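Re: the 135-residue chain
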Amino acid sequence: MYKNILVPISFDEDRDAAGAIDVARTLAGKDGKITLIHVMEDIPGYAITYVPENYLVESRQAIEAELREMAEGLENGASEVITGHSGRTIVDHAEKEGVDCIVIASHRPGMSNLLLGSTATQVVRHANCAVHVIR
């Protein structure tokens, strides 16, 4: 069993967040801590002027509320919203927090993923802990 599990949550329709949480719950056992995390990507400077004034604040609050609700159903569950580049931020956060397992939902890779790489691919390649990928 793992003691400190990180579950990155993407609200994309093709990601199985519930499946990742179920796997994390199984891997954590009774005493393991499960943290649900969402990474808000930075909006490029050239595009920020087109974003409504309160959009970032309101979207962050909505995401925090939804993650908190998801974590309430977990024993030893927590939630956190952070800002940065998804793959790199997840790996850095896991290392900083002493995470021993990351459970991440992924989509079926397409041609663009072969050229650019997906968040799950970056996490698998660079994490210093176990990574379980859920499809």
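The chain has a mean pLDDT of 90.
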